[in-house]
Amino acid sequence: PRYLEFLTVKSVMKDVKNDPDISATSRSSVLRTIGNRLNINGVDDVSVKDFTYKKVDNGFELSVQYEVREHLYGNIDAVLTFSNKVDINGQ
After folding, report:
1. Among the residues of 1-91, which ranges form H helices?
2. pLDDT tens series, the chain, 91 aa
C-alpha cells in the first residue's frame, strides 16, 4: 500500500506538471492544489509540507521527499524513503 500511495503522489505531480496554467499561479496556489488532490485520493502519509516548489533557470521545480516508518515487530521498524521531482517549464 505504501508504494501504491507513492504512485498516486507521482501521478498528482505529473498532473500538476501537465496543467498549462500552473506556471502562472503562485507557490501557495500550487501547493494548495497538490494538497487538495492528495486529500481527494486519500493519501495520508504525505502532506503539503513534504513538497518544495521553487524557481529554477528555465521554470520551476516541484519535488517531494518523505519517509514512512513501518513497525515490523518488537523494536524493529522498516523505514521506506520516497522522492520524486518534476520540472515545470515557464511559459
Report:
1. 2-18, 27-40
2. 899 999 999 999 999 999 888 877 888 999 999 999 999 999 988 999 999 999 888 889 999 999 999 999 999 999 999 999 999 886 5
